[in-house]
Amino acid sequence: MLTTYAYNILGSYEDAKDVVQEAYLRFIQRKRTALEDEKAYLIRTVINLSINNKNRQKRERKSYPGEWLPEPVATEHADSLLNRKEILSYSLMVLLEKLTAKQRAVFILKEAFTYDHKEIGEVLDITEENSRKLLNRAKEKLQASETITPSKQADAYINKYLSVIQNADMSQLEKMLYEEVMVISDGGGKVAAFRKPVTGREAVAKLLQGIYKKFYTHVEIRKTSINNQPALCYIEDGRLINCQVFSMQKNVLHNIYFISNPDKLNAFEKNLFKTVTF
Length: 278
Description:
Layout: H1 2-10, H2 13-29, H3 38-60, H4 90-95, H5 101-112, H6 117-124, H7 128-142, H8 154-166, H9 170-175, E1 177-186, E2 198-199, H10 201-216, E3 220-226, E4 229-236, E5 239-249, E6 252-259, H11 262-272
Parallel strand pairs: 1-6
Antiparallel strand pairs: 1-2, 3-4, 4-5, 5-6
């Protein structure tokens, strides 16, 4: 539970594990008799450490090469340190990057974990009124963007997408894309990636077809689920080289996220080879 809370705030599984470890060290160093509610202490510590770490992460990202995307986690058979049902969707994780760390924490506690404002105030050491204001500001920032949920027809749709790409059917591919579809790529400066998002049906169709033809005709492609959304993983010589996460709206592809930064694929790769495809 603690790791899931931290991951949802940080967008980084590795950082989340570090935060939980630090929280436990603080817990051990305290006299247990001094704590009225040990669980509440741990939750409060993890969330506040996560907020501090998120603020530091945002400062460091000013020098990050290109776009930054959350670290993916497997949700077919999620890591035992995560609660699969409480992992936020990948699309929502991306949207939440618009918020401050504290706004994000309030939004997640209220909307995802159904805390009331009194409980949020106790966790974050703020007033109930301040909690309400932070939630309202968070919702205002997210208002222009829809939270996209996975489609029940995702499996069949991804099968069709693969078939269209492999057959180089550009006209059919364009029909599968939202008019203002966007592709965001995160290589972390360690592997090739486009620095800015690519938008528009025609441009994205050309990009997807070109990338497949140049890099992926000879690799293993595996369907999976990342943050409860359909995804494709590309495996070359037994090594995961890229994940593509798809968000769907009205049965068309709305956004596609490419995660190829090897630092963000390490933990996911270990879980990927444990899972079966959907």
